[in-house]
Structure to design on (675 residues):
């Protein structure tokens, strides 16, 4: 392993629990049926075949949905739980900044708990007493410092743990979502300390759901999904990919939800909807849709009333169910007068819509009486792929400039 | 499977310091935390053996138990003090790993620190209840001599036995809780199977052999010898106990070593 590599992980697999149980079960099955040799591949793996390297002084972000294996990875690197398979080389002292308040006793005062936390985190008694004034100041607890911690708010508790953790010397920091607690001022100070660590040439592994923070703190980001490392690379690209995965997940989830909730559908005999298809510009169904290319929505329907007497409403809503596009058209202007089956095609032009999962609402009314013939909410889901990190409804580059204020 | 943490190899001394530092901190936490919100505080440590003493004295009145010519209160209390230590230590060991789940899941520490802290915490109770015992010994004019130097040895052996059984319970109980739930009952049974309420001499001859398999017998008899009979412990009895302790450690320690690696997985 080359000199500047501080962590090297190769073919790491992890399955939770005592290996005894699967081993015994495996033996029993093997005795019964000698053919099944792939026994070890079964069972829920928390991590599957993870390999990566971290260089000294690098900050690696680890992102992924809940249960992707991020915390498991940190736990293995911290030596808390052994890997089931694979090789790990860690050069230097690891300090896990996870569960910083582990072990505190609610009846003890802040000061007493600081001593305890210090011992847990590996500070000597002398070191703790030396750092005590500094910690006391950092936590900003003042008179609360000598009060039982059961009276503390969660933010106060977080400061206690963090105050001690900041004084631990280590070469590699494992940070797991510790910044999620506490107010903005506290978060800023924590970030400041992390920056100091980085400048001191320390290596940081940073697990977080705060993607913004990951983007600006990390040089490399690894995306985990279902225990596998999907991609590793520069923050921007990995985060965008992660967000797209989430959009698809969200769309799938909602598709399942809607199939259950029929109350979203109102339909009469006069108008039937058979199918809705969403196509990308290459007229492929269920494929990547890019907002800048536009897309097609096709409604296959049957009407008992001539099209020219109908009124169609189309609605595109984003994840938060905010309408992003809305249009209504009179059947007359479609230029056909037809009873029976037909395809209604809506071409959505290229638009700077932000990436995300969207749903379509569709309604049909009689133009003259405004009687609703059919109304479909969330009738189709689609995902618009993000090209970069996007927020808000529209993804439009703004023009930024600075003018100098003249002082005289 | 191969994990390399080079720092661990050359930092042995540091690791040992760290272990004792943490052990001390955990013991302080337990002792302070345990009694801080109670009215009687550490007096509770005195009450437990005293309570048993009162019950046993009453039972003795009914059953006419011999105490080999020694005042019964002293006879039973001098055995109850080390017994209570042993029993509390074992009972505390079982859930000690679960209670520290947060630390176990966070830090790579030798897990044995938690049961060890449980035993040492119980040592504090032993000293508290020992105060009353000293008072009683003065009251009954118990002979004092060099054989009192056996006391730390006996306490150490009792602690070793408690820890051996404790790590076994912790090893198994962290996976399946049943053994932890069963511990209080087992300790009640064990109390009756140890010469605390009655003298060893009143155990029928044909039962003696099985009875001696209980490593607490030799230890309690040792305490009796030193504390009230004014002599050194019977070395034969003590040797049997030491063998028992050895057997328990030979089973419990490797089990704990293997199983404790995976504690973080199941907590």
């Amino acid at each position: 392993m080359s000199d500047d590599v501080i962590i090297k992980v190769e073919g790491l697999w992890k399955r939770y629990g005592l290996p005894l149980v699967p081993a015994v079960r495996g033996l029993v099955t093997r005795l019964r049926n000698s053919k099944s040799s792939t026994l070890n591949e079964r069972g829920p793996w928390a991590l599957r075949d993870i390999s990566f390297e971290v260089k000294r002084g690098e900050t690696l972000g680890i992102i992924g949905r809940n249960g992707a294996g991020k915390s498991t990875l940190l736990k293995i690197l911290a030596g808390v739980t052994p890997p089931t398979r694979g090789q790990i080389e860690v050069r230097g002292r690891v300090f896990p900044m996870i569960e910083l308040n582990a072990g505190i006793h609610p009846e003890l005062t802040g000061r007493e708990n600081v001593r305890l936390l210090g011992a847990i985190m590996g500070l000597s008694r002398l070191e703790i007493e030396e750092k005590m004034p500094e910690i006391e100041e950092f936590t900003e607890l003042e008179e609360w410092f000598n009060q039982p911690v059961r009276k503390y708010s969660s933010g106060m508790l977080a400061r206690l743990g963090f105050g001690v953790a900041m004084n631990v010397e280590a070469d590699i920091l494992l940070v797991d979502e510790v910044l999620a607690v506490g107010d903005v001022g506290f978060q800023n100070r924590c970030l400041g300390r992390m920056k100091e660590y980085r400048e001191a040439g320390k290596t940081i592994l940073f697990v977080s759901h705060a993607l913004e923070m990951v983007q600006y703190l990390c040089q490399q980001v690894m995306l985990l999904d279902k225990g596998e490392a999907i991609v590793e690379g520069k923050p921007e690209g990995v985060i965008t990919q992660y967000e797209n995965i989430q959009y698809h997940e969200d769309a799938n989830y909602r598709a399942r939800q809607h199939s259950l909730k029929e109350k979203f559908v109102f339909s009469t005999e006069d108008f039937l909807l058979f199918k809705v298809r969403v196509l990308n510009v290459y007229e492929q169904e269920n494929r990547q849709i890019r907002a800048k290319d536009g897309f097609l929505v096709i409604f296959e329907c049957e009407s008992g009333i001539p099209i020219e007497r109908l009124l169609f409403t189309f609605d595109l809503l984003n994840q938060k169910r905010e309408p992003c596009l809305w249009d209504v058209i009179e059947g007359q202007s479609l230029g056909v007068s037809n009873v029976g089956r037909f395809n209604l095609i809506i071409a959505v032009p290229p638009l700077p819509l932000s990436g995300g999962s969207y749903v379509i609402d569709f309604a049909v009314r009689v133009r003259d009486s405004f009687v609703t013939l059919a109304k479909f909410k969330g009738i189709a889901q689609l995902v618009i792929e993000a090209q970069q990190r996007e927020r808000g409804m529209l993804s439009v580059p703004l023009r930024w400039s600075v003018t100098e204020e003249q002082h005289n | 499977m191969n994990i390399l943490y080079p720092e661990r190899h050359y930092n042995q001394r540091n690791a040992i310091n760290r272990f004792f530092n943490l052990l001390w901190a955990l013991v302080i936490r337990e002792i302070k935390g345990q009694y801080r919100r109670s009215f009687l505080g550490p007096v509770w440590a005195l009450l437990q053996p005293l309570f048993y003493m009162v019950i046993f004295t009453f039972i003795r009145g009914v059953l006419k138990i011999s105490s080999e010519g020694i005042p019964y209160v002293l006879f039973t209390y001098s055995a109850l003090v080390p017994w209570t230590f042993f029993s509390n230590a074992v009972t505390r060991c079982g859930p000690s790993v679960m209670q520290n789940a947060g630390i176990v899941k966070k830090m790579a520490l030798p897990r044995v620190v938690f049961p060890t802290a449980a035993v040492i915490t119980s040592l504090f109770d032993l000293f508290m209840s020992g105060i009353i015992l000293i008072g009683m010994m003065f009251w009954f004019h118990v002979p004092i001599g060099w054989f009192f130097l056996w006391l730390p040895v006996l306490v150490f052996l009792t602690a070793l036995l408690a820890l051996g059984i404790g790590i076994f319970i912790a090893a198994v109980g962290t996976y399946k809780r049943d053994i932890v739930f069963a511990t209080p009952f087992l300790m009640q049974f064990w109390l009756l199977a140890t010469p605390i309420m009655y003298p060893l001499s009143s155990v029928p001859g044909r039962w003696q052999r099985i009875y001696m398999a209980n490593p607490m017998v030799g230890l309690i008899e040792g305490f009796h010898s030193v504390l009230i009979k004014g002599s050194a412990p019977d070395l034969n009895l003590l040797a049997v106990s030491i063998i028992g302790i050895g057997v328990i450690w030979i089973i419990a320690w490797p089990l704990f070593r293997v199983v404790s690696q995976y504690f973080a997985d199941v907590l």
